[in-house]
Amino acid sequence: MEPPAAVVVVWSLALLCAAGLTRSLSITSGDQSTFEKAQGEKVTLPCTFVLSEDDEGPLDIEWVLIPADNQKKEQIIIMYSVDRIYNRYYAAMTGRMQFTNPDPKFGDGSLDILNLKSADTGTYQCKVKKAPGVQSQKIQLTVLVKPARTKCSIEGSQEIGKDVTLKCVSQEGSPLLSYDWRRVSGTQELPATSTLNKDTGELLLKNASRDYSGIYSCVAANRVGTDECSVELNVTPPINTAGIIVGAIVGTLLGLSVLTFLIFCCCKKHREKKYEKEVHHDIREDVPPPKSRSSTARSYIGSNRSSLGSMSPSNMEGYAKTPYSQVPSEDFERPPGQNPTFAPSKVAAPNLSRMGAVPVMIPAQSKDGSIV
Hints:
alpha+beta
């Protein structure tokens, strides 16, 4: 039984409509919608398309960043419209983004992002418009940080029979980080008693022996990169702690003895200097200055002259009998309470006259006692 003519007409119209839809604008780069890249690298977000002869309007290509918060608006990154490129909409990517093809109208509206940063992580959408055709495609970009500044260390005593822990930590790196230890010297195999925690990077070596000595390497890794560090383990016999303690005590006592001796010497020297200063000060304060020899002699001669000038003929005889003494020097000191005794000197007559003496005539006597 053949279908009615009306049904045939309807099917024909449906096929024509379907043929028209297949000839409209379409995006062909839909194979990969998720990208993971390392910080500092470059990524190309694909957006290739095919135009239809029925699309007669102006061509517009627009890349937008869809925020994680639905309450926020989409952020335009770059746009191509009426044969011009506009790339000043998003300051965070200024100078780091561009169309892969300098002339996107030929069917390639892919976006290049240079020198990726962790903040570039997000959902990007490519929109292609050419009226009446409109198509779009979303791409998820995740920017990860490679492990970096990885440091290895040893925790615990490196003695035979002790437990030693090798630690490995990366200062930078996006999660999830995993750590793996390997031995790069000797047997190049981890000891049988070792236990590895890949999440924390700790390698526990129980009951260490000399055979455990060697160089160990740790590799930190995530989905975008790796980093490595190494450390040398040297297992030694137990240390003689008793000898170390005795040596430390002896050294301390010796140091205290030397310090005490130095303090004693300094104090003794200080006392000697202080005593010398005091004695020198007492001598300068208590001892009077010495008298001049010339002034003492002049005083003595002047007193004798005054005494001779006042002599009369009656007391010249007693003065002549007194022995003459020399002029005292400045070193001579007479005891208190004693008067000095001067010896008379023989003075000639002319000298007596000059001194002011009055000549007296004494009568001469003969041998039998008569006066001449």
